Amino acid sequence: MTSNLEENSGDVIITDNFILGNLIRENYDTPLIAFQNISNSYIILRAIEKTNVKNIIFVIRLSQANENLDYIINRILRNLIPLNYNIDIKYIDNYKDIFEEKFNVNYTLNKAA
Description:
about 110 residues; disordered C terminus; 6-stranded mixed β-sheet; alpha/beta; globular; Dna Topoisomerase Vi A Subunit, Chain: A, domain 2
């Protein structure tokens, strides 16, 4: 699922969860890609190839709640980092974190590599 992703988009939020993606899409006017069971970075690269995206922000649930975290890091982030995207990760504890006042402005980010 993609939302608000246009040619002039400089940032994109990516999540591995459709529920999380829908919550972000419904509450914020920001470029978004949500996927489920992705196997590699090709689908993401295909979605952003005709954009000006430089910053990729992965929004994922904490590792205790997200059994796919190691897979995402090893199969997706590892392929995107050499392509000079600025890749950050925002961990959320649960879905209600999306409704915090400055969710899409005041990121608490950790570098992926």
